[in-house]
Design a protein that fits this description.
Elements (H helix, E strand, L loop, with lengths): L3 E4 L2 E3 L5 E7 L8 E7 L6 E7 L5 E2 L7 E6 L4 E6 L8 E10 L3 E5 L3 E5 L2
Parallel strand pairs: 2-11
Antiparallel strand pairs: 1-3, 3-8, 4-5, 4-9, 5-6, 7-8, 9-10, 9-11
């Protein structure tokens, strides 16, 4: 069973930075796509950024220029560097991985809380 474990969330002031980590229980090369989503209170979960294994990354418009997705295959870990944080970035951030075999299989982490407040 694939496990994804997020870490790095917390409380930060507006304009500050955080780096989220998503540690996978197996090689991230086995996933076709990895990405980050978020869900704010009372809102639907939304895409933040995705990183296909063989393609270019895609960012939601509301994080372009502020967030950067990356991965370290040696550590089986994906990251989300978040800069210039705004109060509206407050949400639970989830790591997601997709593996396509005969059909797509989705895996989610448990989420990590990010709160941007002064």
């Amino acid at each position: 069973q694939v496990q994804l474990v997020e870490s790095g969330g917390g409380l930060v002031q507006p304009g500050g930075s955080l780096r989220l980590s998503c540690a996978a229980s197996e090689s991230i090369f086995r996933f076709n796509v990895m990405g980050w989503h978020r869900q704010a209170p009372g809102k639907q979960r939304e895409l933040v950024a995705i990183m296909p294994s063989g393609g270019s990354t895609t960012y939601a418009d509301f994080v372009k220029g502020r967030f950067t997705i990356s991965r370290d295959s040696a550590k089986n870990t994906m990251y989300l560097q978040m800069n210039s944080l705004k109060p509206e970035d407050t949400a639970v951030y989830y790591c997601k991985a997709i593996r396509v075999i005969t059909r797509p299989y989705e895996y989610w982490g448990q989420g990590t809380q990010v709160t941007v407040s002064s």
